[in-house]
Amino acid sequence: MANKRKKISRREFLKLAGLATSSVAAGTLKPFVEKRSAFSQKKKMMDDAGRAKRPWWVREVDKPTVDIDWGNMQRFDARMAARGSGFINYVGQEEFERLNKVAAENEKERLLKNVPGYTLKDQALAAAQANASTQRRFFLGPQNTKTPAERGISIWKGSSDDAARILRVAMRHFGAATIGFVELNEQTRKLIYSYDTDGKEIVFEDVEEAYETDQKRIIPHKAKWVIVYAVQMSTDALKRAPTVIAEQTTILSYSRALDIQNRTQEFLRGLGYQCLGEANVNGLGIAPAFAVMAGLGELARHNRVVTPEFGPMVRIFKMITDLPVTMDKPIDAGIMEFCKTCKKCAETCPASALSLDDEPAWKVQGKWNNPGHKAYFEHSLKCRTYMKEGAGTNCSICFSVCPFAKKNKAWIHNWVKAGISSIPSLDAMLRSLDDAFSYGAQKSPEEWWWLNLPEYGIDTEQTIDQE
Predict the structure, then answer these.
(1) Distance between CA 230 and CA 355 in Å, rounded?
(2) Are 428 and 100 in contact (CB under 8 A)?
(3) pLDDT in tens, 57-101
(4) Which of 64, 83, 346, 405 could form a disulfide with 330 if both were Cys (CB 3.0 to 4.6 A apart)?
């Protein structure tokens, strides 16, 4: 389905040109601004709750840009998701074994043919990411750190702003890109799974301490603050999707997230508070939903989160604590509105698993989707089948072709994002410009081995001083 290209009015052109002029002026004057002390610069970059300064076009809103019908929403059984055993239940054991056999045959053939992105060195890199971690996941945390009671002192106390700030600073130090907080109430509790990915029931009880049995995980009512955090993936690696080079950056993000979770659980234990983590990969609750409510980003056409700072180049994780922290709000940066016009991820999806509809809908594609919100629901079985039969990896083409999936090295990129947020009628033109500059084109997997990349292949400075 071809996009209808909208004409830009003279007024809109002048407004966008004004944004560009302001960006150039700011970039020119910046070196001549009087230097301030390191502490005053830090204060400017964050508020009292430790929130990093974001671009002016990222607006806090009371309701997210995805419509939610809380009355129709129920807690989702994570076993219904089309991954792991859930996928087997949908396609059947015989088809699952066939797909695994096809995937193994394709992998060997690509190795023998030395296909770029699937060579032995690529496979060895991915295996290193997947198999080297010695850490374990804990619902209750590693519990190695002494509590204040064990030290013979009182628990840490401070305002909710103080708590949010020190938690953000600590988690940034541990490796989280952005962090937000959501309060668990009658509505948002519905975003916590009813049954976890391993089949254990997740139950809220009026108890002082969280605990776990062979059948269930118990969350105390007083543990009502959700910590939502994003971990960056390497844009340079994901631009090689759907190869193993791209897949391994996803694997690395999960490994780093586990490290962040364990350290945060121990940090909060040391302060005298509980921190409940993901006991399994993608466990505990619905990550994109919590990211939207915490203001980390907006739900996009590929039914995942796109952030103002990193586009879709993140993975989202969550924990629960009884430390009272200042809450965050959803944001509107024009991302969902842009998705209505763009459709690039859906047009590029080799499995035709993404929606090409003009507007998001309430109707789900299957039981793997959670109803109760308006979205571009994906057909997960088509997606998973292509991963086995075609890509031989976790694919991620929809991430790599997204117009937001680029580094903000040039002022023009922030100028475009401001235009998307401020003048929605320009969306079609900006999508065309993205095509013209071939931003979504796949890059050479072999070239990746010659790049001089920063740590983890990411730029951690993108989270601050965006203006």
Answers:
(1) 25
(2) no
(3) 899 999 999 999 999 999 999 999 998 888 999 999 999 999 999
(4) 64
How far, in Å, CA of 88 to CA of 96, rounded?
A: 6
Task: Please choose, from the candidates 101, 163, 200, the residue with its C-alpha nearest in 3D space to the C-alpha of residue 326.
Answer: 163
- The C-alpha atoms of residue 249 and residue 244 are separated, in whole angstroms, by 9
Residues 183, 225: Cα–Cα separation, whole Å: 5
DSSP, collapsed to helix, strand or coil, labels residue 19 as helix
14 within a domain of the structure (yes/no): no
In a domain, 137, yes or no: yes
141-165 pLDDT per residue, tens: 999 999 999 999 999 999 999 999 9
Residues forming a β-bridge with 218: 203, 211
Task: For residue 6, give every residue at least 6 positions away whose Cβ sits within 8 Å of its Cβ, in sequence order, or none.
Answer: 425, 426, 427, 428, 429
Mean residue pLDDT across the chain: 87
241 within a domain of the structure (yes/no): yes
- 156: part of which helix (H) or strand (E)? none
- Tell me the residue ranges of DSSP E strands in 159-303: 178-183, 201-205, 211-212, 216-220, 225-232, 275-276, 298-299
* Structural domain span for residue 315: 45-405+440-463
Residue 360 lies in a domain: yes
Are β-strands 305-306 and 225-232 bridged in parallel, bridged antiparallel, or unpaired?
unpaired
Question: Can you give the pTM of this predicted structure?
Answer: 0.88
* Residues linked to residue 306 through DSSP beta bridges, in sequence order: 298
Q: Let me know: does 238 contact 396? Beta carbons within 8 Å.
A: yes
Q: Would you give the distance in Å from CA 319 to the centre of its chain?
A: 14
Residue 302's pLDDT band (cuts 50, 70, 90): very high
Q: Considering only CA atoms, which of 370, 330, 274 is closest in space to residue 79?
A: 370
In sequence order, the β-bridge partners of residue 232 are 314
Amino acid present at 340: K
